[in-house]
Amino acid sequence: MNVSRTINPPRPANGPRRSSLVRKIVVLTTAVAALAVALTGLIAWQTAAHGAEQRERDQLTRQATVLSRLPVLSEALFNGAQALAGPNGVQLAVIAPDGTVSGTASPAVDRVSKSALLTGEPVSTTGILGGRDVLLVGQPGVRGGAVVLTEPYTVVTENTNQIRRNVIAPLVFGMLGAALAGALLARRIARPLVTAAQIAHRLADGERGVPAPVDGPRETADIGRALNVLDEALARSENRQREFLLSVSHDLRTPLTALQGYAEALADGLIEPERVPEVGGILADETRRLDRFLGDLLDLARLEADDFRLDVAPADLRALLSEAAAFWTGLCARHGIDLRLERPDGPVVVATDAFRVRQLIDGLVQNALRVAPEGAPLVLAVRAAGPGGGAELQVRDGGPGLTEDDVRIAFEHGALHERYRGTRPVGSGLGLAIAHRLTGRLGAVIHVEGHGPEGGASFTVTLPPAPAAG
Q1: Do the Cβ atoms of 4 and 209 come closer than 8 Å?
Q2: pLDDT of 55 higher than 60
Q3: What is the spatial distance between Cα 462 and Cα 72, in angstroms, rounded to a whole number?
Q4: Alpha helices, DSSP H only, in 268-316?
Q5: Which of 3.40.50.2300, 1.10.287.130, 3.40.190.10, 3.90.550.10 is the CATH number of 218-304?
């Protein structure tokens, strides 16, 4: 693929530097991960104490259940209490069937717990032993009485702290892993966008023929296809502009060459006295031709300007078309053109710029008059557009008409001029481009048919009741 490049001035800075998409995604995913970690840690922190306490109660319950199934709750239980407790500080109390409480844990057994155990109900509660909080679990014996075990609450606190310490590391690693995953995801998401931005910058710098990838997700593929379409459109537009400038330079050089040649001949005395009026007429014609061409260029430039002004006021298009027909009648008669006027009986009023509408009509008539052969008709028509308001203007001729391909490019700068320069009369190549741009400025729409009722081209301009604001 051929790559063309033009030199453009550097792009101005567009405000303050913005943070990249990758950084934003990383920050966002890290923030989400941190929030999830914080919520998870908060829940784990709260449930750690409950879980540790429940585990110790379950363990005491199993031990008490085993002891309560012994056939006799005797002094032998006290002899093995220390071995049973071990380093975790579990203490034992025995409640006899008559309610007598014995054992190292007996101070922790209150009246409510003792009554419940003697009626055969297990107990799981808290108590105070030696001035410290303890877990208290009791199980009724198989032959009456009960067994009570206690454990210092400090054991639960230690287990809770251990669980919390064990949770911190996984949470931290989880957050770091989420941040890493976010960074990888961000790079993957942003890569096609970065590529698209680089291609757009290359296009903005004047480089053409830059292929954009169209793979990946649907959205990024759409961006790639849009950039490829833009690249092709820019290349076509620049080629048309280049061809147009070449055509303009040729059209300027032709009258200038004639003017220069005759001027030099006059200066050198090479023109016979009897031919001076003839040469003067040629110089005047070439000067007028050059003036018309430069006028068309200026009109087109004005229409492209942002400050182009319209003087909008109610205008009777029927009267405006009649004035145009009166102006062109003499010229049409000299060329043998049959000028016809189609108009309703009553006025056709819209809010528009009458001067610009007349300019539009004159341009289309001049274009038709140039190609219509002697004896051919040229029709100016106006009618109301319909119940919604507005109006339609038509300029139809009996000339050679336009092909479908001509219709497609009719309003491009110099397109028809370049195509028919050697086969039919042509103007500056700007008339239809001016008509199209002027129609848009008026808030109207222009449509062309290659062959109208009279056999030649038919141009229809649909004007709204009033131009759109702005």
Answers
A1: yes
A2: yes
A3: 113
A4: 276-304
A5: 1.10.287.130
Instruction: Please report which residue ranges of 105-209 form alpha helices under DSSP H.
Output: 111-118, 153-204
3-state class of 131 per DSSP?
Answer: coil
Q: Does domain 71-152 have CATH number 1.10.10?
A: no
- pLDDT tens for each residue of 407-438: 888 888 667 767 777 666 666 667 788 888 88
Do the domains 71-152 and 313-463 sit in the same CATH topology, yes or no?
no
> What residues contact 253, with CB distance under 8 A and at least 6 apart?
none
Lowest mean pLDDT among 41-45, 330-334, 393-397: 41-45
Does pTM surpass 0.90?
Answer: no
Task: Give 116-155 pLDDT, tens digit per residue.
Answer: 989 999 999 999 988 899 999 999 988 888 999 999 988 8
**DSSP notation for 321-361:** HHHHHHHHHHHHHHTT-EEEEE--SS--EEEE-HHHHHHHH
For the packed helices 218-267 and 276-304, what is the interaxial angle rounded to 10 degrees? 160
295 CB-near residues (< 8 Å, 6+ apart) = none
**313-463: which CATH architecture?**
2-Layer Sandwich (3.30)
Of residues 284, 463, 455, the one with CA closest to residue 382 = 463
Q: In terms of C-beta density within 10 A (0-12 exposed, 13-18 middle, 19 or more buried), how is residue 379 classed? A: buried
325 to 57, 62, 295, 391, 424: CA distances (angstroms): 109, 114, 23, 18, 25
